[in-house]
């Protein structure tokens, strides 16, 4: 049976029985949940070690550019070759590309001979153009001269070299098909140049296949799941200025503005929030319609640079954008209907927000305090994103095994056609890399929840000081309650916060794994057919989501009691749950409506961030130049997520103020036979009107 908190929160008696006057919630505390703090510190050390592996082995350029016939990454500098300017991967032998597209073909596209170029070569009508291997051996050309000659030194070849070139074994290869830059690879257009083909035949070259398979083979490789995932991850690295502006600065500015408006225009803010939310949701949906090509001519395209407007290349990214556009349409309709349904409850939310506005006015440091966890999270995310890019690209470049295929090519150093080591190169990912990536993702979620929980606990401690000093002399409130609360958190309660954030992260991870398994079974066609198993399948999903929501709600109230009482996480959760259950009829609806308005406010900030992200990504820098992103989908989603996290940090000032005052009110009422002695009059008026409405509803 727990004792009264009034003695704990207000004035208390010291261990020797004498009265003390050290202030609010400064009772005898001690460190709690130390084991989980040690686990959290050990986890951070593991994160650093895990990230160092990525920084040592990874190269983010691998996510964007392909490999050449020597295993070099295009667009980067290597020990023997500087390919910094040569970003485009080009398949030299068209017959190898054709064979890789056959169902029973032995040669894979990964083993077809590729080279890094500055631009995609094109055939001409008056002569036959050639693309030759990097100058080496007897070909004494510098790389810059080779580039200036359009990669052509056919005139310098010996008769033996020319003969092997006519057999499509190099070192020079004819340019028969036009090609276009598709995601930094030159994709063949399956329309051979008649004049170039005629020149090739007159020189006695081998037959070159002209089937459409030559087009589809490269397209199939470019649209594979692995290739699309790499491009999405690379988009995050390319759009880092967008993430800083739209995922950091914009939500920071908007969140502070929202808090100031709550402070001075609280009566109008619920209405403004609801209307603004629907307008922003519709605006973001319209941008997705634009990128899906359903409005205007600005659809997502995989082609980089100028090209024939009548030539179209399919990219899986366009399908994803259209899917999100449909989803956003459904969400917009539901949001508008829900907004209409809650209009009658907005007045109640206004009353609750007025209480929070009064707290912010009394403890003004709360408005700027979230800037501290914001700065810490910003530093963490910069480190985490950089490490994630290196981890995703930390596989080993190895030469493929293709002994059973014909990939012979002329070796300028050996001065002969070599069939022994002519296979292509690929990046091999070991299972431990996959584990490292999932560990990194889990670490991000846990760290984010930890920072949010720490911020919420500090705010709760500050607001509790305000509530329990109500009616007493102002010196009872610490001069800087926010910093006093920060000191208590750092000294006593970091372990409890680590435990609470770990529980949320673990439940969310389990739900993510189960959802991934569900999608995998759905794709493989192994979804249970019997109605009972289907019902159990969907029921388990719903239950897990409910458990996640409940734990987050319990955690939030537990952080409040941790800040007030200094007890462990589990004990604080029990106290908070008992208080809420005892007063559910009195506070339930008020708390829910307030949370709904605050949730819509967070979405407004995050949608603004997504909208600004769309506008920045629509500039030339990210459309046609070196930093072109394959799709705005993931950068915009990242801006939305970062905006929501920043808004959560700042909106916690209002959210935790309301929850802390309500929990303090419940304890105040319980200790004083149902008559709260410290509650603000505005809170009493709001709760009493809510209780009368509930009684009338139950009576009728």
TrEMBL record:
Transmembrane feature ranges: 34-55, 240-261, 268-290, 324-343, 363-384, 489-514, 596-617, 633-654
Range of residues in the leader sequence: none
Record-level GO cellular component terms: plasma membrane
Record's bilayer topology term: Multi-pass membrane protein
Pfam families assigned: Choline_transpo (PF04515)
A Gene Ontology molecular function term of the record: transmembrane transporter activity
Cell compartment(s), UniProt: Cell membrane; Membrane
Recorded superkingdom: Eukaryota
Keyword Membrane in annotation: yes
Function: Choline transporter.
Protein name per the record: Choline transporter-like protein
């Amino acid at each position: 049976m727990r004792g009264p908190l009034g003695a704990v929160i207000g004035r208390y008696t010291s261990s020797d029985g004498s009265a003390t006057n050290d202030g609010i919630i400064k009772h005898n505390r001690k460190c709690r949940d130390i084991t989980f703090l040690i686990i959290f510190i050990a986890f951070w050390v593991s994160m650093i070690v895990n990230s160092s592996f990525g920084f040592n082995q990874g190269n983010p350029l691998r996510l964007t550019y392909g490999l050449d016939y020597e295993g070099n990454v295009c667009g980067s500098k290597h020990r023997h070759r500087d390919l910094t300017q040569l970003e485009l991967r080009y398949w030299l032998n068209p017959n190898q590309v054709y064979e890789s597209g056959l169902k029973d073909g032995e040669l894979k596209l990964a083993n077809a001979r590729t080279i890094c170029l500055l631009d995609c070569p094109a055939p001409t009508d008056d002569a036959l153009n050639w693309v030759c291997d990097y100058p080496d051996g007897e070909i004494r050309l510098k790389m810059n001269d080779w580039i200036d000659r359009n990669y052509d030194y056919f005139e310098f070849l010996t008769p033996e070299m020319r003969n092997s070139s006519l057999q499509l074994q190099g070192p020079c290869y004819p340019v028969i098909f036009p090609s276009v830059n598709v995601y930094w690879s030159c994709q063949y257009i399956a329309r051979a140049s008649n004049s170039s083909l005629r020149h090739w035949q007159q020189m006695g070259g081998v037959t070159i296949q002209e089937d459409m398979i030559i087009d589809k083979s490269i397209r199939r490789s470019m649209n594979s799941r692995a290739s699309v995932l790499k491009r999405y991850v690379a988009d995050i690295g390319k759009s880092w200025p967008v993430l800083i502006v739209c995922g950091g600065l914009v939500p920071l500015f908007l969140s502070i503005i929202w808090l100031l408006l709550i402070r001075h225009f609280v009566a109008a803010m619920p209405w403004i929030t609801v209307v603004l939310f629907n307008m922003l949701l519709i605006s973001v949906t319209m941008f997705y319609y634009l990128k899906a090509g359903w409005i205007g001519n600005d659809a997502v395209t995989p082609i980089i640079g100028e090209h024939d407007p009548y030539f179209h290349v399919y990219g899986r990214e366009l399908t994803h954008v259209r899917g999100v556009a449909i989803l956003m349409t459904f969400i917009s309709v539901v949001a508008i209907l829900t907004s209409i349904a809650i209009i009658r409850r907005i007045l109640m939310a206004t009353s609750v927000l007025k209480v929070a506005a009064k707290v912010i006015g009394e403890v003004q440091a709360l408005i700027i305090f979230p800037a501290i966890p914001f700065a810490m999270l910003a530093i963490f995310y910069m480190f985490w994103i950089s490490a994630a890019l290196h981890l995703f690209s930390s596989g080993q470049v190895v030469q493929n095994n293709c002994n059973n295929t014909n990939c012979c090519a002329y070796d300028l150093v050996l001065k002969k056609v070599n069939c022994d080591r002519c296979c292509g190169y690929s990046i091999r990912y070991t299972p431990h890399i996959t584990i490292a990536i999932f560990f990194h993702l889990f670490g991000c979620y846990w760290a984010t929840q930890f920072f949010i929980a720490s911020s919420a606990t500090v705010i709760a401690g500050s607001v509790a000081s305000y509530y329990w000093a109500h009616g007493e002399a102002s010196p009872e409130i610490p001069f800087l309650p926010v910093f006093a609360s920060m000191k208590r958190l750092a000294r006593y309660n970091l372990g409890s916060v680590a435990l609470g954030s770990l529980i949320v992260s673990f439940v969310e991870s389990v739900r993510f794994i189960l959802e991934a398994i569900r999608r995998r079974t759905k794709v493989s066609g192994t979804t249970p057919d019997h109605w009972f198993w289907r019902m159990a399948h969907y029921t388990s999903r719903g239950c897990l989501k409910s458990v996640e929501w409940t734990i987050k709600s319990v955690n939030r109230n537990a952080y409040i009691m941790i800040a007030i009482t200094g007890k462990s996480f589990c004990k604080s959760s029990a106290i908070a749950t008992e208080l809420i259950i005892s007063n559910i009829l009195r506070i339930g609806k008020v708390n829910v409506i307030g949370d709904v308005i605050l949730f819509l406010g967070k979405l407004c900030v995050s949608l603004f961030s997504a909208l600004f992200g769309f506008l920045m990504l629509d500039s030339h820098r990210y459309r046609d130049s070196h930093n072109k992103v394959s799709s705005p989908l993931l950068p915009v989603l990242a801006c939305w997520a970062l905006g929501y996290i920043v808004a959560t940090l700042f909106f916690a000032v209002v959210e935790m103020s309301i929850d802390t005052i309500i929990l303090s009110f419940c304890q105040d009422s319980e200790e004083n036979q149902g008559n709260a002695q410290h509650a603000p009059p505005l809170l009493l008026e709001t709760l009493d009107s809510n209780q009368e409405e509930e009684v009338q509803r139950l009576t009728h």
